[in-house]
Write a structure and sequence with these properties.
By secondary structure, this protein is α+β, with helices and mostly antiparallel strands. Helix content is 54%, strand content 16%. A hairpin with a 2-residue loop joins strand 8 and strand 9.
Length: 379
Amino acid sequence: MRFAARWTLLWAWCLLAPRAAQAHPIEARKGTLNLLDRAAYLVVSLPVSALDNVDDDGDGALSPAELEAHAGAIRAQVIAGVQLLGPDRALPLHLLMLDVTPPEDSPGLASRHVVAMGWFDLGGASAAQAPDGPALREGLRMRFRLFGKDSAQRELNLTITRQQDVQWVQFTPERPEHRVLPSSVTLLADYARIGAEHVLQGPDHLLFLLVVLATGWGWRTLLAALSCFTAGHALTLALGVWAGWSVPAGVVEPAIAATIVGMVAFDLWSRRQARAGATAQRLALVFLCALVHGLGFAGALTELTRWPAGSTQMAGALIGFNLGIEAAQIAVTLLAGATVQVLRAVVGQGAHRWASNAASATALVAGTWWFLERLGLQP
């Protein structure tokens, strides 16, 4: 009976949706997926430019007449481009309604977005007829491939709910698939992999780490430097994700490049001055620079997914992401150490100084280039 009641409410929602859409249209490039019993209910706003051969007049918008004329083609493209995947197959999407969302003050005009409403069958039977019972709600993945041609239309923000659980994910052409409300273990492993990939695929973070490693210190001092780097970026990463601290990417990205240049400049100055006590000052500088890098990590993590504040999912994502960052740092450290040992065996004891100078020179040039590029000052 509970399921039948929900199904009745959904149909009522569908009947009222055209009127409601005129007053409060769903925001462009956003959607919701609500998992209930044996079905997952979807409402999503799609850019018209993501659909093929439906815009007859080529104005980048869809009129009610065009929607009616191409309803079949649109339905086929939505079913193929918006998929909920089970462990072994794509689950069927039953589209209930397609509608355009024209401007509120001009309801007769064409719209640049189409609203699709429907449900995925989680139980392998008709959701309207299936009896109450366990449904497929674990191990699900959401795949989205309907992106518009404009840069502003190259993302979709989807809010996923299941009773008290809430998840926010962002789909892009580079990341078109996400797990749906994953288990704690899966969440931890996924975000550990994402954290490691972010470091290994981010040349600015890698170069800063190599500058930190290129000092010729002993293992104890080197571990202290890595600990300062870890503590710094973990602090601002946690504040960014957990407490909602936010710094615009236009500020953070040039600042990350500036930390590379500043670290190299400090090392060159310290060597020339042969300053006593430079070790303590360098550790403090590493910590301060790491605070900036942590803001970059936080921006990358919040772009992928968001969770309700204080939730176990948020904690799992944050811990996993941090573990992945640390695993990547350790791997880079071990590889750098092994490379220096090989160079010593080949060219002698001067290998470390040569490697240190090469890393510093590369970091100085690349860091300066990135800084100017991210400020838009390059010719």
